[in-house]
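Predict the holo structure. Ligand: zinc ion.
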Amino acid sequence: MPELPEVEFARRALTKWVDGRSIVRTEADPKVRTFRGSNVKDVEALVGRVERIERRGKFLLLTFSDGRGAIAHLGMTGKFLKRPAGAEARWSRARFVLDSGEVIHFQDPRLFGLIQPVPAAELSRNQAVAKLGIDPLVDGLTAAQLEAALAASRQELKVALMDQERVAGLGNIHAAEALFRANLHPARAPGSLTKDEWARLAKAIHDGISFALEAEAGEEIEYVEEPGAKNPFLVYGRDGEPCPVCHAPIASVDQGGRTTFFCPSCQPKPGKPGKRPAKAKGRAAKPAGGSRSKSAPARGRKRT
Ligand SMILES: [Zn+2]
């Protein structure tokens, strides 16, 4: 499911596609819920030059040069695709036809995505956008900011990390990945974290986002849930597989109705005997291989 890095990937691709181009026609399929009751005519009025595409959390904010604008959300499996003139795209709910003849499709098989016309001047004041918390890429995210955003939460740490009003952009995948990188148990009480642990978690969030952005090549994204897709993540979706650091089996647990993946050895519950960080450091020099090796530098630098 698209989270901050995947939406940022979409932002970068879209920005590239519209650069120096103009949208000469927009088509929106009536009767699909992608537009959430907005007048389809207003969607189809989104033409001309796109001045700016910003991202906050999992939302894309498009500013057109005539003052029109739109909010887009990829939902569960939505994506933007660029296709040559006349080429079909399955589950295309909206099409932005460029002056080059190429077409940017909004593909949304499961219809959880959103395109909503909003005047550009009102984008940041839009209710869904205004309530978002700190965005790690747009706002930066220091240990102190992270602590200020989360420490008062009564929810378990992983659930609190996914609260878009606290930190914007992390979902089930990247919250789990950050906690693994920071050696923090997902059920910790946010109020119990030390300064050092907040610092580790802030760094882990940035490292996980950078890793995911680097893992995506080309202009078309592939979600880990799609059939045949590769799983580039350290613990997400790896129930029972060996931990890339200590080789203990990755465990899964239900948290707030979502499955959390973690290593019970690298992410011990406080008070429970866990692996000594020094040992993890030694193992990190020889990761299982492949893309997992990217975790090694982050873990080697931790101080505990
Ligand atoms: Zn482990």
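The chain has a mean pLDDT of 90. Residues 195-215 form the longest helix (21 residues).
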